[in-house]
Write a structure and sequence with these properties.
This protein has one domain: Pnp Oxidase, Chain A, CATH 2.30.110. Helix content is about 30%, strand content about 35%. The protein contains 6 helices and 9 strands. Strands 1, 2, 3, 4, 5, 6, 7, 8 and 9 form a 9-stranded antiparallel beta sheet that branches. Helix 5 crosses helix 6. The chain starts with a helix and ends with a strand. The structure holds flavin mononucleotide. The site of flavin mononucleotide has 16 residues, from strand 2, strand 4 and helix 3.
């Protein structure tokens, strides 16, 4: 059978829930926490996984999955190698989009905003909380570089294990980024593709200290 035909026949009817203005929390952080709790309760695999897009100064986009490790009034934080492809992108163009694809709930959340590097203190305290093997792994990987074969990384890992048998220092090339949201869209699938899309958008009065206020807009599906 032509797999193309299978793809064309694949469709779900999205009928699990609705999202109306009256349901929304006052700010996107509260709404996000509410939906994240639902994703956890529904046993979504890796509920804190988000697909983060970045762009080069030339406008070349890329995307990858990372894990949300903090969400607070500042925004959505993840940790990574600062010299990876995404690290270079964010250093030169500090803007990102993130998608949480909570497909079993027929939901997605899309965050767009400025990216700000987390402090070295904060990166250090998160790094210290990671399992020893993951800490060594962070040291071992020059993330996103081409390597000749698997052995390169396995040997580096073994060497570093001998070098850091106990405490592992924070590598200077490893840290975190916070996506400070300018907009957060909550998408709930509905029947006949007439989905609910409610987007919080930050509006500012232009003052230097103005953190902005949120307006909610409904988008056409
Ligand atoms: C479920 C999942 C979670 C991941 N979490 C992270 C993460 O938190 N940080 C990270 O640097 N890479 C993470 N990765 C690997 C990235 O997707 C990616 O391969 C890596 O960061 C290199 O991306 P880049 O070359 O575009 O910079 C994860 C991958 C998956 C599938």
């Amino acid at each position: 059978m032509d797999p193309q035909h299978d793809l064309r026949a694949m469709r779900l009817s999205y009928d699990r829930d609705t999202l109306v203005e009256a349901d929304l929390r006052a700010d996107p952080l509260g709404q996000f926490r509410h939906w994240l709790a639902d994703a956890i309760a529904e046993a979504v695999v890796e509920p804190n996984a988000m697909v983060v897009s970045t762009v080069t100064p030339q406008g070349v986009p890329s995307a990858r999955t990372v894990l949300l490790k903090d969400v607070d009034a500042r925004g959505f934080a993840f940790y990574t190698n600062l010299r990876s492809r995404k690290g270079h992108d964010l250093a030169s163009t500090p803007r990102a989009a993130a998608v949480f694809p909570w497909l079993p709930l027929h939901r997605q959340v899309i965050v767009i905003g400025e990216a700000v590097e987390v402090s070295r203190d904060e990166a250090g305290s998160y790094f210290a909380s990671r399992p020893h093997g993951s800490q060594i792994g962070a040291w071992a990987s020059r993330q996103s570089e081409v390597i000749t074969d698997r052995a390169v990384i396995d040997e580096r890992y073994a060497d570093l294990l001998a070098r850091f048998p106990d405490e592992v220092p924070l590598p200077d090339f490893w840290g975190g980024w916070i996506i400070v949201p300018e907009s957060v869209e909550f998408w709930q699938g509905r029947e006949s593709r007439l989905h609910d899309r409610l987007r919080y958008r930050r509006v500012r009065d232009g003052g230097l200290d103005d953190a902005g206020a949120w307006v909610v807009e409904r988008l056409s599906p």
